[in-house]
Design goal:
alpha/beta; about 50% helix
């Protein structure tokens, strides 16, 4: 999971795409924002859909998608045409993540209208999905719906999503949300097994403590307080452990295992140190094989 608005440039993107494909990752997702959501002035921010079009050309098998495209940014029919083009370029590997839009500062900075209430934003999202399907004219592109809201988000996910994503803080909460989604699916007559469940979290992995400390320093340059705090590497690691997967490969797997047992079928790991290909190598070589051995709940 790449936060394109936090310093990504085209050379970094080319390397990340090549590594993700080569190392066998299941999916490569990119955020869709106009500026740093951490509020860092002047930070590079790539266009998500141009990035995905290039990734479609540079890869052959990995699933590609947005996390997520705010409906406030696009006329739905135009988004449908953009998504269809990327899906065709990729040979049918696109997952279209859509959302309501939420970042007030970003909308104000770029003069993009943001409905003042969540009810209006959800109305726009639901109508937007309907118009996207209409514009696709029978051609299928699967949707991703993210979020943990118990009312409209859950209902939209149950009705529309091929994948539902959340950043639940712990496995117990994640499992309860999965079961609630199951119930909503049954209420509307949909098979819950049709929806893949994914979890998004940051990840800091290292072969030993010294490597972890080095990565902590690099990630802290990207992720500012209050999300990650601390002056020393150990303080930064302690802060990151409160919300991310942090540790050696075995420790990271132990932290991820309860989520997998609770129903997570895909882990979307936020990779903030964009030039750190070794971290991706380590995840692929020593984390993914252990996760693959955990039986799926759904």
């Amino acid at each position: 999971m790449i936060e394109a608005q936090e310093g990504l440039d085209w050379a970094l993107w080319r390397g990340i795409v090549a590594d993700a494909e080569r190392l066998g990752f299941a999916a490569l997702r990119v955020s869709d924002h106009c500026q740093s959501v951490f509020g860092v002035e002047g930070r590079r921010s790539l266009s998500a859909w141009v990035a995905l079009a290039l990734a479609a050309e540079w890869t052959e098998r990995i699933q590609l998608g947005t996390m997520v495209s705010p409906m406030t940014f696009y006329e739905p029919a135009v988004l449908a045409r953009i998504a269809l083009a990327v899906d065709e370029l990729s040979g049918g590997r696109l997952l279209l993540g859509v959302g309501t839009g939420w970042n007030v500062a970003e909308h104000e900075q770029f003069g993009i209208p943001l409905p003042p209430t969540w009810g209006e934003r959800f109305d726009r999202l639901e109508e937007g999905i309907r118009r996207i399907r209409q514009a696709l004219d029978g051609r299928e592109i699967p949707f991703l719906i993210g979020g943990g809201g118990p009312r409209r988000t859950r209902t939209i996910a149950a009705r529309e999503a091929a994948e539902w994503n959340t950043a639940a803080p712990d496995a117990e909460t994640f499992g309860a949300m999965c079961l609630a989604l199951d119930d909503r699916c049954r209420e509307i007559g949909r098979d819950p097994s049709e929806i893949r469940r994914s979890l998004m979290k940051g990840c800091l992995v290292g072969r030993d403590l010294d490597e972890l400390r080095g990565r902590a320093i690099e990630v802290a340059k990207v992720v500012p307080p209050p999300r990650i705090t601390g002056e020393t590497p150990d303080e930064i690691l302690a802060s990151a452990r409160q919300r991310w997967f942090v540790g050696t490969p075995d420790e990271v797997v132990a932290q991820m295992r309860p989520f997998a047992e609770a129903g997570a079928e895909l882990f979307l790991l936020q990779h903030f140190a964009l030039d750190d290909a070794d971290a991706l190598e380590l995840l692929a070589a020593e984390v993914e094989p252990q996760l693959a051995a955990i039986p799926l709940r759904w």
